[in-house]
Amino acid sequence: MRIPTVSVGVRATPITPDNRSTAVTIATWLLLIILIIMFLSREAIKFVVLRKFQIDDLLILLATLFAVGLSVTTLVLASNGLGVLRPLTVRRADVFMKLYYASDFLYISSLCFAKLSLVSFFYGVGVKKVHRRIVQGLGVFIITWTIASLVAVAFQCGLPRPWEMLTLRCYNSGVFWIVYCIIDMTTDVSIIMLSVNLVAYLQVNLSRKITVVACFAPRVLVIVAALARLIYLYPINPHMKPAFNLWIPVICTQIQVCLSISTACIPYMKPFFEGVEAGVWRADDLRRKGMMVDELYAYRSAGGSLGTKGHGHSKGKEIYSMDSTIRATSYKYGRSTDVSPQIPTPVPLSPLT
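-> structure tokens emitted (353 positions)
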């Protein structure tokens, strides 16, 4: 009995002018892998440095989960006719509209939580009450605008089927996305300006300040991606074969979400921690050295001998050597006069102190 051979290899549909679904699939997988790698790298580096889970970690985790959901939705859209120039059946059109309807919610939510993770960071390192209030106000504005946007998307078409965006029962979504894009870009610009305001209070050299600002400067790419998405999305209407023409805005959406999460992870990489957190570690180290010096002075004032014979002599030499080493190390941070034996408290090198 002859068994017919069956090919187990899955052949991808070639990219043609009438079929862009494979391009959508490839771009979605690539961007999904990049944002997951960035998120895991951020969490690994932060755990090594701080060894604790904070509110900004929860926010970036939620942003990543919504981004993963968006990518899964996009992959299913690509398998249901997105980017394919052919008529849709009633069933496939209904699935397509529901998935695209859900993707708007995931897109807005992912961007919101990615921004809030940075806002949470700025609030934690704020050194002035005015600075904290500005950051707090920005966070409240982002949350309020996101809720309003989700409500607008939820009722973009007539009830009881608000997801039927291929019909003529919807409001002009192009105007909504223009307003959303403008406010979205404004909040990204505000985040970049907050980073400039942050370094103004850091007592570090200019190169360190440039490094800190450079960690937030890539948010400009998020603004470019948002603008590109709007340019391709605005002209599309139900009369322009949206199931095919939406393939470019969908890829731009994936790029914007990936960049938003990735740029929110960049400030937690090691160069940033070296520039901002080093002041805390250095100040703590100097305080410990100052405590050791005070103990040595107290020991000597109490009549402790540093020149006894035998074991005591060896111990005295060890303490004297330690005292000299600490004194020499402390010289570059400032030394008190010979009248007072106290070492001045070093000036904090970071607002995080």
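Confidence is low (pLDDT under 50) at residues 1-11, 275-287, 305-336, 347-353.
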